[in-house]
Amino acid sequence: MTRPPKPEPVQVVKQRRDAALAALVDGVPYLRFLGIRFDRRGDELTAILPYDDALIGNPLIPALHGGATAAFLETTAIIELAWATMWEQMEGGGQPGPPQLPKTIDFTVDYLRSGLPRDAYARARVNRSGRRYASVHVEAWQDNRARLFAQATGHFLMPVRDDPTRGA
Amino acid sequence: MPDIDRIARQFIEAIPHCRPLGMRVDSVAGGLAVISMAWDARFVGDPGTGVIHGGAVSALMDTASGAAVMCHPEAPSTTATMDLRIDYMRPATPGQRITARAECYHMTRSVAFVRVTATDEDDTRPVASATGAFTVDRRGAA
């Protein structure tokens, strides 16, 4: 009788996933510039934009800059897409290659209310991910998950994957 | 410089987020705004290519659009982005300055419509373009 293989210790799994995410996120200078971090629960990512005075666009209200909000949503979408690809490779038992980032084709931001001088959070949902194109929706909120301050939809060009089974 | 343009320039120059991005107001007048930003390693989005992050280009285009609204002859007292749709046509060449030219082409009592184009030093081939709808606040306006 053969026993099913023993599952890997949880720390090993966590470490591998965290390292893969760090490799992806730490490689992008603009994420560091804005101070964006990613929180991971299993495969689910939440992007965090900690408040900073340099993110303000209107000092009178004060409100977050629309451009900072757009950048936050766009990076969340890009990282989510790249992460989904890495996750598949990793969980399939493979070694994820160097992170390859999708390219934005278009991005539409819907500003629902002004961003307050607080931390902001965002989560992206990949609505369609084909071999060449992907469509992603992103939602951003601050104090209340149900009260979004911005949402966006974008289309992305997926990186060309090295596929050794395909001839030249 | 007419008052509206001077006020619009001050409005843009007082935006905290534009300072770390090194944005420069090249011109603001009559609903047209030109704002530019130098390439910087900190703004890179794809470390493999050195191409600036789309988000940085968006921030530049959003700022130029807001500036175009502020310097429109109808002189709103303030504005905020309601909607911005950005198309990325090609990667900006690393090392080159990016310039956004925005035009507020229509304004109603409460909404301003803007189109904007971003180019690098080859201004014959746009890097990105966007259209936006902006709120128009007339409170306190003379």
Question: What topology does this entry show?
Answer:
The complex is a heterodimer of chains A (168) and B (142).
Chain A: H1 10-26, H2 29-34, E1 37-41, E2 44-49, E3 56-58, E4 63-64, H3 66-91, E5 103-111, E6 120-129, E7 133-141, E8 148-157
Antiparallel strand pairs in A: 1-2, 2-6, 3-4, 5-8, 6-7, 7-8
Helix pairs in contact in A: 1-3
Chain B: H1 3-13, E1 24-29, E2 32-37, E3 44-46, E4 51-52, H2 54-70, E5 78-88, E6 98-107, E7 111-119, E8 128-137
Helix pairs in contact in B: 1-2
Q: Separation of termini of chain A? A: 45 Å
Strand order of the largest sheet of chain A: 1-2-6-7-8-5
Q: Structural class, judged by helices and strands of chain B?
A: alpha+beta
H/E element string of chain A?
A: HHEEEEHEEEE
**What low-confidence regions of chain A span 5 or more consecutive residues with pLDDT below 50?**
none
Number of helices, counting only DSSP H or I runs of 4 residues or more of chain A: 3
The total beta strand count of chain B reads 8
Give a verbal description of the structure.
The complex is a heterodimer of chains A (168) and B (142). Chain A has a 6-stranded antiparallel beta sheet with strand order 1-2-6-7-8-5. The mean pLDDT of chain A is 91. Chain A has 168 residues and is α+β, with helices and mostly antiparallel strands. The radius of gyration of chain A is 18 Å and the shape is globular. Chain A contains 3 helices and 8 strands. Chain B has 142 residues and is an alpha+beta fold. In chain B, a hairpin with a 4-residue loop joins strand 3 and strand 4. In chain B, the strands form 2 sheets. A 6-stranded antiparallel beta sheet of chain B has the order 1-2-6-7-8-5, with helices on one face. The longest helix of chain B has 17 residues, at 54-70. Helices cover 20% and strands 40% of the residues of chain B. The chains are: A alpha+beta (168), B alpha+beta (142). Chain A binds chain B through residues 27-30, 32-34, 53-60, 63-68, 70-72, 74-75, 78, 98, 100-101, 103-111, 114, and chain B through 14-20, 41-48, 52-56, 58-63, 66, 78, 80-88, 91.
